[in-house]
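Need a sequence for this fold. Nothing fancy.
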């Protein structure tokens, strides 16, 4: 990679880590566990900021025809499931555990290609990497000494990884040619904002948020503002990354970002992340499996 691409990857890893840490701080440390409100705030802010920079001519958004929007609706519903379940899981699980389970979503498009015979034969290295991803995630749950208190976290993590994997399949197989990545994200933001707002009252999140004791505190308001800004910047730099770097370099950037966030979270005393030797082994095995999965075709 040239210098510009390296800088882009470094910026992505930095914003990814800041976004992850800010979300974790609001959800776990401040214990603001009202996902329809929290995610609704993030998606509405993202939609507004994207609309502003569009009107300023900084980005190009076209092709939002009614048929294109309707064709992307399944993806938007999966996006909502992704951010809702991801918010619940991240509030209950340590950051390294969250990414270990999320990494399992990488195998969904692969298994779909095998079942539909789009990929006729899988290499032994890719099969090994899939076993490593599944085995490390299963072992992490089994050996985690916090299994009891975080049981719901694993349930939400499974829903999250299913939505992430299904969304990858949707993007790969039914992507509308008339929609760019920014246009897809704008549709996701708008639909998510309205749907989450409509669910806020029925889920009880609205009344719970209004009674939240830290609602007017500086730390909470700063955390919420940071989560929305970093989330929006992460979306922009992700789009730039995917359009400016080859697929294997994009995968490497995502891999390094998750490793960086997982590693640094262990040193942030606020998160109180304690890793036993068994869980540390599971995490290392998982990331080894992910790296092997990404580059198995080139290593054969």
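Here you go.
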């Amino acid at each position: 990679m040239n210098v510009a691409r390296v800088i882009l990857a470094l910026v992505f890893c930095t914003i990814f880590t800041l976004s992850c840490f800010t979300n974790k701080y609001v959800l776990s440390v401040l214990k603001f566990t009202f996902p329809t409100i929290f995610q609704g705030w993030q998606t509405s802010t993202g939609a507004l900021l994207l609309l502003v920079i569009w009107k300023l001519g900084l980005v190009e958004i076209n092709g939002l025809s009614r048929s294109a929007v309707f064709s992307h609706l399944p993806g938007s519903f999966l996006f909502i499931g992704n951010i809702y379940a991801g918010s619940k899981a991240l509030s209950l699980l340590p950051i390294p555990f969250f990414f270990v389970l999320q990494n399992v979503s990488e195998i969904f498009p692969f298994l779909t290609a095998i079942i539909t015979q789009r990929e006729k034969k899988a290499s032994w290295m890719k099969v090994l990497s899939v076993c490593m991803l599944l085995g490390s995630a299963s072992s992490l749950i089994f050996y985690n000494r916090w299994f009891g208190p975080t049981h719901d976290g694993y349930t939400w993590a499974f829903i999250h990884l299913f939505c992430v994997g299904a969304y990858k399949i949707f993007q790969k197989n039914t992507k509308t040619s008339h929609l760019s990545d920014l246009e897809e994200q704008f549709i996701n933001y708008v639909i998510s904002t309205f749907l989450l707002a409509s669910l806020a009252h029925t889920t009880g999140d609205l009344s719970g948020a209004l009674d939240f004791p830290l609602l007017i505190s500086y730390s909470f308001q700063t955390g919420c503002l940071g989560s929305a800004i970093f989330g929006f910047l992460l979306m922009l730099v992700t789009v730039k990354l995917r359009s400016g770097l080859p697929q294997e370099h994009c995968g490497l950037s995502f891999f390094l970002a998750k490793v960086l966030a997982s590693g640094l979270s262990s040193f942030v005393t606020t998160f109180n992340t304690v890793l036993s030797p068994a869980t540390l082994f599971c995490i290392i095995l998982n990331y080894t499996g992910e790296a092997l999965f990404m580059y198995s075709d080139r290593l054969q």
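For context: The mean pLDDT is 88.
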